[in-house]
Design goal:
The structure holds two protein chains of two kinds. By secondary structure, chain A is an alpha+beta fold. Chain A is built from two helices and four strands, in the order βαβαββ. Chain A has one domain: Translation Initiation Factor IF3 (2-Layer Sandwich), CATH 3.30.110.40. Chain A has a four-stranded mixed sheet with strand order 1-2-4-3, covered by helices on one side. The chains are: A alpha+beta, B alpha/beta. At the A-B interface, helix 1 and helix 2 of A face strand 14 of B. The complex binds flavin-adenine dinucleotide.
C-alpha cells in the first residue's frame, strides 16, 4: 500500500472547489464529490452543497474511512455545505 | 419550406422520439410541411440489459440485437452515419461524409460510453459487460474456463449507466458458480466507491442481507485509482490495495465523442440540460434525452423512454402552438435482479426518494417480460400500457 505524503500548514488558506449538488438525490452528491476527488490535488478543499439528507453522514463516514479531513459542516437555508480537505489520494504506480 | 425536426442517435431514446414524432406529424409529413429525420451511427440496436445475460447466463448475443432501420417508422428520413459535429447556434450538424444537415428543432440522444482508459491499465486488466455483445461473450467464455480463485466485480468509477447492473452481475455470477459447483473454490468480492452495496439506502437494506447470505464480501469506499495486471492488484484513491484473479469492473462512463468534440458537454461530456423541460440550457429548440444529459437521475432505458416523450411533446406543442410546456418528473423505474430468479425495482423521482422494494419472482418475470416488449415499445405503440404502469411521469403547464 502506498502512503500519501502530506504536509499542509494550518495557515494555508485554500480556495474551496464548490460542488453544487443541490437538487440531486442519493447518489448524486457523493458521485459528484468522488468525481471532484478524482481530479483534486493533495491539500485541495472540496466544498459540497447538498439538499439530500444522506450527504452529511455519507461524506462524514467517507472522510473518516479514507483519511481525508472533514473541515466543516454548515447548515444553510435548505441545504448543507460540507468542506473536506484532501489529505490522502493514492498515486499511480 | 418544411419545418425540420432532427433526432441524433438511434438508441432507446432517439428511436422512440423519432417514431413518436412521425406519428404525431403523420399528416404534416405527407403534406411536406414537416420533415422528421433520424441520424444514427450504428446499423444495429442492442437491447443493453441483455448484455448481463450474455455475460453470466450464456445467452446468444444475436437474440439481443436487431437492425435499426426496421425499428424506425417509414415516414422518418433515416440516415445511418456518424455525426461529427453539432452546432446548436447555426442549427446544423456535420456528418462523417462531409454532408451537413440543418434543422429547426433537434433532439440529441447520443447515449453514454464506458471509458476504461480513464483508469490506468483498467482496459487490459478487466472484463466488461457494458460495452458490446463481444465483450460480454468474452466474460461467458472466461467463466467457463475459470475454476478457482478470487473474482472481483464492481464499479471502477462513477457515473455509469444502469446503477443496479454491477450488483446484478455479482448475483448472477454467484448463481452461475453455484449451479456449476465451482462456488466453494471461488471467493467473490463486490467493490464500490459508495458507502454501501447499493448507493440508495432503502435498496441497500434489501441487498445487504442477500450478499451476506451468499458469502459475498463487500468493499465500500474504494475509488479505483489504477490496476496492476501483472501483480493482479487494484489500488484505490483512498490508499487501499486489493488482489484479484479475475476482474469484472464497470468502467466510468462519459458522454459520446461528438458531444465532447462539439463543446456541448461538461468536462465528462454530459450536456447541461433542464431536468424538467429537457431543453439544452440556453436553447429553446434543442433538447437532450437519455444517458447524454447531466440530469441528476440514473442513466437507464426507462429514463430515456420517458424523457423522449416529454421532449417530443414540447416540440409538438411549439410547432402546433398549443401553449403547453411538459415537464419530466424524474421518474425512474429500473429492475434489479438479485439472483435465484428474483428481482426488485429501483423506483423514485425528483420529489420521491428511492423506495424500499422487496425482491420477488413476480418482479423478475416482469423484467423478463419487458425484454419481449422492448422492441415494440420503441414504436410508441405500447405507451397506453406503460403510462398505466408508470403513472404520472410528466406534468403540463399552460404557458399563457
Ligand atoms: C448491462 C446493462 C444493463 C442495463 N439494464 C437496464 C435495465 O434493466 N433497465 C433500463 O431501463 N436500462 C438498463 N440499461 C441502460 C440502458 O440500456 C441505457 O440507459 C439506454 O440505452 C440509454 O438510452 P439512450 O437513448 O440515451 O442511449 P443509447 O441507447 O445508448 O443510444 C445511443 C445512440 O446514439 C448513437 N450515437 C452515439 N454517437 C453518435 C454519433 N456521433 N453519431 C450518430 N449516432 C451516434 C449510438 O449509435 C446509439 O444508437 C442497461 C445498460 C447496460 C449496459
Amino acid at each position: 500500500m502506498m502512503e500519501a505524503q502530506t504536509i499542509i500548514k494550518p495557515e494555508t488558506i485554500v480556495k474551496p472547489t464548490i460542488i453544487d449538488s443541490r437538487g440531486t438525490m442519493c447518489p448524486g452528491p457523493i458521485t459528484d464529490l468522488f468525481r471532484a476527488y478524482r481530479n483534486s490535488n493533495l491539500g485541495d478543499v472540496l466544498e459540497l452543497w447538498a439538499t439530500d439528507p444522506a450527504a452529511k453522514s455519507d461524506v462524514q463516514t467517507w472522510a473518516k474511512r479514507s483519511g481525508n479531513e472533514l473541515v466543516s459542516i454548515n447548515d444553510e437555508k435548505g441545504y448543507v455545505r460540507i468542506q473536506v480537505r484532501i489529505l490522502r489520494k493514492g498515486v499511480s504506480r | 419550406m418544411a419545418v425540420k425536426v432532427l433526432v441524433i442517435g438511434g438508441g432507446t431514446g432517439g428511436t422512440l422520439a423519432a417514431n413518436l414524432l412521425a406519428k404525431e406529424f403523420a399528416v404534416e409529413i405527407a403534406d411536406n410541411d414537416i420533415q422528421v429525420a433520424l441520424v444514427t451511427g450504428s446499423k444495429f440496436h442492442v437491447f443493453q440489459p441483455g448484455l448481463l445475460e450474455v455475460a453470466f447466463e450464456g445467452k446468444a448475443p444475436d437474440t439481443i440485437v436487431r437492425e435499426e432501420r426496421p425499428l424506425v417508422n417509414r415516414k422518418v428520413a433515416y440516415t445511418e452515419e456518424r455525426v461529427e459535429r453539432i452546432d446548436l447556434r447555426k442549427q446544423e450538424v456535420l456528418l462523417a461524409s462531409g454532408q451537413s444537415l440543418d434543422y429547426d428543432y433537434v433532439i440529441i440522444a447520443t447515449g453514454s460510453v464506458p471509458n476504461p482508459d480513464s483508469i490506468p491499465r483498467l482496459r487490459e486488466a478487466s472484463l466488461n459487460f457494458h460495452t458490446s455483445t463481444d465483450e460480454s461473450l468474452r466474460i461467458w467464455h472466461t467463466l467457463k474456463q475459470f475454476e478457482k480463485g478470487r473474482v472481483v466485480v464492481g464499479i471502477a468509477g462513477v457515473p455509469h449507466k444502469c446503477p443496479p447492473s454491477p450488483n446484478e452481475a455479482t448475483f448472477l455470477l454467484d448463481d452461475y458458480l453455484r449451479k456449476t459447483g465451482k462456488r466453494e473454490h471461488v471467493s467473490l468480492t463486490f467493490l464500490t466507491p459508495y458507502p454501501r452495496p447499493y448507493p440508495a439506502e432503502p435498496l441497500s437494506k434489501v441487498v445487504e442481507p442477500l450478499l451476506e447470505k451468499r458469502g459475498i464480501e463487500v468493499v465500500t469506499f474504494f475509488n479505483l485509482e489504477s490496476v496492476d495486471p501483472r501483480k493482479k492488484e487494484l489500488y484505490s484513491l483512498e490508499g487501499d490495495t486489493i488482489g484479484y484473479d479475475l476482474l469484472i469492473m464497470v468502467p466510468p462512463h462519459q458522454g459520446a465523442d461528438v458531444i465532447v468534440k462539439s463543446g456541448l458537454g461538461d468536462r465528462d461530456g454530459w450536456i447541461p440540460t433542464d431536468k424538467q423541460t429537457l431543453r439544452i440550457n440556453g436553447y429553446e429548440n434543442a433538447y437532450a434525452i437519455g444517458d447524454c444529459t447531466n440530469i441528476p437521475v440514473s442513466k437507464t432505458g426507462v429514463t430515456a423512454h420517458l424523457e423522449a416523450k416529454v421532449a417530443v411533446n414540447n416540440i409538438v406543442s411549439s410547432i402546433k402552438e398549443l401553449g403547453k410546456l411538459h415537464k419530466y418528473t424524474g421518474r425512474i423505474n429500473c429492475p434489479f435482479e438479485v439472483g435465484s430468479g428474483k428481482a426488485a425495482f429501483v423506483v423514485g423521482s425528483y420529489e420521491m426518494p428511492v423506495k424500499q422494494i422487496e425482491p420477488t419472482r413476480m418482479r423478475q418475470l416482469m423484467k423478463k417480460g419487458f425484454e419481449r416488449v422492448y422492441w415494440r415499445s420503441l414504436s410508441g405503440s405500447l405507451d397506453w400500457l406503460l403510462d398505466r404502469y408508470f403513472g404520472e411521469t410528466d406534468t403540463t403547464e399552460n404557458m399563457s
